[in-house]
Amino acid sequence: MGRMGGMTETISQLMNAMGLDVSPWVAPLLALLLFFALLPKILRNMRTSKARKILKRAWMLGAEERTEMERAAVTLVRGHPPGMLALGQEAQRQGRFALARLTVSELKETRPKRGTELWREMRKLDQALTDQLPNTEDELVLMVERLMELDMWEEAERRLDQGRARWPNSNSISQLDRALKQR
């Protein structure tokens, strides 16, 4: 029976240890039932894994293709909060803050129960995304320039607005603001 034989033999031994004397065909049937019972979770995890891989591959593409692949990744995990959280965390690691914010907003719409692991991780990701303002204006300038190089104009503008509020008299932020408007 190959690999299945070891699993069915183990199930049979467990059932015998519990005092259940059953026919030899029951163990493979139980293994099959267990597989079908777990199949929806297995498929969701596979979709989450595929979405993360899509996101990793999209990193090397141009802006239009990257956006299209990001949409495909979100579509794969939509309706599955743990998958959406995993995608958001991956997006944050890659510096794709707009996508990470999208996943957090979609997660908030599912209203996870307060105190659950999903809720804590969602809050942690949300906090990390809102607290990403650098400590100095030079760091902010470097961050905004990097975002502009990656054609992430909305995120660059948002960061620049945050920096302008924090350092209102900064010449370097004013110059960067002019460069952003001229794009």
The radius of gyration over CA amounts to 24 Å
- DSSP helix count? 9
Given as residue ranges, the uncertain stretches (5+ residues, pLDDT < 50) are: none
What is the average per-residue confidence, as pLDDT, rounded to a whole number? 83
The largest sheet, given as strand count, sense and whether it forms a barrel, is: none
Whole-number count of domains: 2
Note the beta-strand portion: under 5%
Shape: elongated
Distance between the termini: 66 Å
Number of strands: 0
Helix content: over 70%
SS-derived structural category: mainly alpha
Helix/strand order = HHHHHHHHH
Summary?
The chain is built from nine helices and no strands. It has 183 residues and is mostly helical.
Describe it.
There is one protein chain. With 183 residues, this protein is mostly helical. It folds into two domains: 3-13 and 22-130, no CATH class; 137-182, no CATH class. The protein is built from nine helices and no strands. Helix 1 (3-17) crosses helix 2 (26-58), helix 4 packs antiparallel against helix 5 and helix 8 (153-166) runs antiparallel to helix 9 (171-182). It is elongated and about 80 Å long. The mean pLDDT is 83.
